[in-house]
Amino acid sequence: MDAFYASVEQRDNLALRGRPVAVGGSRQRGVVAAASYEARRHGVRSAMPSVTARRKCPDLVFVPPRFEVYRAVSAQIHAIFARYTTLIQPLSLDEAYLDVTEPLIEHPSATAIAQEIRSAIRAETGLTASAGVSYNKFLAKLASDYRKPDGLYVITPRMGPRFVETLPVERFHGIGPATAQRMHALGIRTGLDLRGWEMDRLACHFGRAAVFYHGIARGLDGRPVEPDRKRKSIGAERTLEQDIHHWHQAQAVLEMLVDQVWEACSKRGLGGRTVRVKIRYADFRHTGRARSVLVPVPSRAALREMAVSLMRPFFPPDMGVRLLGLTVSNLDNADMRASGTQFTLELDAS
């Protein structure tokens, strides 16, 4: 989807159309969750601090996020996908891989299916989507970004290796900023540079990821679309309006995080066996602690007790705290919580 959250807000509020819009908090410690294309032209990007975004675009309009609305629209879009294939792998509310090798409805090509899906999304939601069509996930993802917004791009098997050659490695989906920086230090700046490295040499610097990097430099990616991929964790974070120093301040935020995480777990019918807390300090250093149990955490009260026991030793801190987070992982079906098994704590600190 094109600037999904911001586009939904512009669709639902005529006064926002054509204006630079940021979804997120507008205060000192706020962060941009999404930016309209009008805002992006001024350099506003998601995850940017709100004060920076306001400096880049003084006319920026901030609107609070409405995640229930975004989830409802996402469900509409996924219902459209489901008309064409059962092989759908969501990446987020606004993005997914579809395998249409054997579509549910006969079509002349994957390109025709992509065009029809885009038309249906526009007709039924009033929003625009961009699509990438190719013979593997890596290239389809690259293609989906190539003609945004409201675009469609196809990378054929003949085009694949050549398309990758001139692309900067930081544009590769699966190579993050830190890895790109390491590659730059080794003289690897483009797909062609990466292709020049043999597997053994790549493995010395990048370990198991070398197999993936070796393949994508040649336009190859054997990963399947995984419609039943299990969720690995459920979490929530809160960037604070002002640095905090006292336990009673942290406790109030932690209560909110416990409520959010427990509600999200309950909605999905999941329970977790590992609880982790995260702290980011005023200088952006971060730390955390985790604890695992033998069965999924059985109740909101138990989650709160574990979260408090993990967070409490960090207070009082040596400097102000700007962010707190809580995550539950090692997820299982919630029915396991009913086992009544006594759980034993095993500390995993970091």
UniProtKB/TrEMBL annotation:
Location within or outside the cell: Cytoplasm
Statement: the UniProt record of this protein carries the keyword Cytoplasm: yes
InterPro entries: DNA/RNA_pol_sf, DNA_pol_Y-fam_lit_finger_sf, DNA_pol_Y-fam_little_finger, DNA_polymerase-Y, DNApol_IV, PolY_HhH_motif, Rev_trsase/Diguanyl_cyclase, UmuC
Cofactor binding notes: Binds 2 magnesium ions per subunit.
EC nos: 2.7.7.7
Keywords from the UniProt entry: Cytoplasm, DNA damage, DNA repair, DNA replication, DNA-binding, DNA-directed DNA polymerase, Magnesium, Metal-binding, Mutator protein, Nucleotidyltransferase, Transferase
The protein, known as: DNA polymerase IV
Active site: E95
Function in brief: Poorly processive, error-prone DNA polymerase involved in untargeted mutagenesis. Copies undamaged DNA at stalled replication forks, which arise in vivo from mismatched or misaligned primer ends. These misaligned primers can be extended by PolIV. Exhibits no 3'-5' exonuclease (proofreading) activity. May be involved in translesional synthesis, in conjunction with the beta clamp from PolIII.
Matching Pfam families: IMS, IMS_C, IMS_HHH
Family stated for the protein in its record: Belongs to the DNA polymerase type-Y family.
Residues in UmuC domain copies: 1-176
